[in-house]
Amino acid sequence: MNTLVVITGPTGVGKTDTAISIAQALSAEIISADSRQLYHEIPVCTAAPTAEQQALIPHHFVGTLNLDEYYSAAQFESDVMQLLPRLFERSPYAVMCGGSMLYIDAVCNGIDDIPTISDEIRNQVYAEYEEHGLYYMLDRLKALDPEHYEVVDKKNYKRVVHAVEICLQAGQTYTSLRTNKSKERPFRIIKIGLNLPREQLFDRINRRVDAMVESGLLEEARRVYPLRHLNSLNTVGFKELFNYFDGTWDYDTAIARIQKNTRVYAKKQLTWYAKDESMQWFAPGDPQILEYIKQTIQQE
């Protein structure tokens, strides 16, 4: 049976190097499951695979979109499901690497058939959010879908706004569209989670931010600063530097906040992954990862 090997884990843990090593051993290609590495103008902030790394193994879904292009987990599921048969013609293995939890879940378990949001509705809803703020959007959601209003993360404006968009686009409640049923896949899935002791992981994150600064993070942020309103730039690294450019924070504060917010995101990822009992955990680069993959295939 064809096999999709998923390499995931918290940001900064070392997924890319591990995925390349596994892909080389399996003669497989890599599917990037990172919602920001899709955008080609921001490789430093997103820690996208370098040209040298991509020369070692073909990577898919890296640098394929412009910053103003809309993309979603549902589109990622559809695109990956169309790509995988072509990859499996070349090898019985494919490797999916990334830390965007919704993207990985969409491919492994499927995602509900949520309608694609039109530019007209997206612009309308975001204009309402910009003019009236989060509490107004919460009231809108409560009127459109009171059931989802009760469970939505009311502090996460993106979740609130997106739920309103879906209700308006579909002409029905978001709740009615959510089945939460897993789809069967015509291939085997092996999930590998990478992690390190908390102190070691946080030290890696702090040092990686410093390395990104040395690699041109500030220059990259200045280039895209005029486009700061785009959703693709609403990410750790740019948000803090935009505050620095605005004069809200000084430089040292901005860098410290990038490090802190990246650590917070890593903890959020680990909380999400802890719910997945199918995940097998290793340290990055552990040679036992390949042995585990081979043993799992042989046992089935």
Task: Kindly state the number of beta strands.
Answer: 6
Strand and helix order: EHEHEHEHHHHHHEHHHHEH
CATH topology of the largest domain: Rossmann fold
Rg, nearest Å: 20 Å
Multimeric state of these chains? single chain
Description:
The chain has 2 domains: 3-112 and 181-299, Rossmann fold, CATH 3.40.50.300; 119-177, Histone, subunit A. The model has no long low-confidence stretch (mean pLDDT 94). Helix 5 crosses helix 8. The chain has a 6-stranded parallel beta sheet, sandwiched between helices. The longest helix has 23 residues, at 251-273. The chain has 300 residues and is of the alpha/beta class. The termini are close together. Helix 2 (51-56) links the parallel strand 2 and strand 3 (59-60). Helix content is 54%, strand content 9%. The protein is built from 14 helices and 6 strands.
Describe the structure concisely.
This protein has helices at 15-26, 51-56, 73-90, 101-109, 119-132, 134-144, 146-151, 157-170, 174-177, 198-214, 217-224, 238-246, 251-273, 288-299, and strands at 3-8, 29-32, 59-60, 93-97, 188-194, 280-282. The protein is α/β, with parallel strands linked by helices and 300 residues long. The model has no long low-confidence stretch (mean pLDDT 94).
SSE order and pairing:
Blueprint: E1 3-8, H1 15-26, E2 29-32, H2 51-56, E3 59-60, H3 73-90, E4 93-97, H4 101-109, H5 119-132, H6 134-144, H7 146-151, H8 157-170, H9 174-177, E5 188-194, H10 198-214, H11 217-224, H12 238-246, H13 251-273, E6 280-282, H14 288-299
Parallel strand pairs: 1-4, 1-5, 2-3, 2-4, 5-6
Helix pairs in contact: 3-4, 5-8, 6-8, 10-13, 12-13
